[in-house]
Amino acid sequence: MEPLEDTGTAAPADSADAAATGGWRGWARVAADLVFPPSCVHCGDLVEASPLRMVCVACVPLLVRVEPPCCPCCGHPFFGEASGERLCVHCEGLRPEFGEGRTAVLFRGPARSLVHTLKYRQGLHVLGDMAKIVAANPHVADFLRGAVLVPVPLHGRKERERGYNQASEYVQALVSALGGATRCAAVLARVIDTQTQTSLDRAQRQANLKNAFALAPGVGINPELRYVLIDDVFTTGSTLNACAAVLRRAGALKVDVCTFGHG
Ligand SMILES: [Zn+2]
Ligand SMILES: [Zn+2]
How would residue 6 be classed by pLDDT, with cut points 50, 70 and 90? Predict the structure, then answer.
């Protein structure tokens, strides 16, 4: 598998980024980065002359872009194997409620560090890099362009604790990076504050998640639109599947999923 390609911008934060991330704030950030170069989220070294803002030049090649052939359900690559239409080991027994799934990078190395920084270390400053990595992968960018991107909702308590909703911030960053007719619609709500899922097996997660999501109040689903559920990481697919089921019950005919990282 080839490493993530250089996206063609040599400066740590270029002017297009600055404009895209909000006028003078963006320019202030560029100036601040020049005076105090940020440290790499993965190795801690200074980030200088990197195509990304928060990943250093030594760590950028460790980002592994996912390309076909992939599992049609979760997007995990089939390394050198014939793929056909079969699902991978991650998806056995999933019974997907969505059509297709894609993922941008393998969830390891700097990709894992970016997601952990976003979720656990007040890391909204990594969103530009995450969106750039997705936009640089045509297999995923083409899949998202023109669709209605739906963030997997956070429960209100978690959002209050964290101070931000990283899922919807990530989707907003994707919309800015992809442009065109792509848009964000927070059509789902998390109505049950499910316990942390990481220690549960698949059966427990599915039971826990069955009623956790609902359509957000006052929201309508347009069956003519294609909805793509967006999450940071594909683990068992249970959360995405529960969200897809809500969209389908509400009348959505085309529901796909896309994650930043997997594997
Ligand atoms: Zn590094
Ligand atoms: Zn799969």
Answer: very low
Report the separation in Å between the CA atom of 199 and the middle of ligand 2, taken as the mean of its atom positions: 21
Whole-model pTM over 0.70? yes
Q: What is the CATH number of the domain that holds 244?
A: 3.40.50
The two three-digit tokens of residue 188, written as one number: 């789902």
Query: How far is ligand 1, taken at its centre, from the CA of residue 38, in Å?
Result: 11
Centre of ligand 1 to C-alpha 14, Å, is 19
Interval between CA 233 and ligand 1 midpoint (Å): 21
Classify residue 18: in a domain, yes or no: no
> pLDDT, tens digit, for every residue of 62-105?
999 999 999 999 999 987 665 566 778 888 888 899 999 999 99
Nearest residue to 258 (alpha-carbon basis) of 227, 236, 228, 235: 228
Q: Is residue 219 part of a domain?
A: yes
Q: How many domains does the chain have?
A: 1
Average pLDDT over residues 25-34: 71
Using a 10 angstrom Cβ sphere, with 0-12 exposed, 13-18 middle and 19 or more buried, the burial of residue 124 is middle
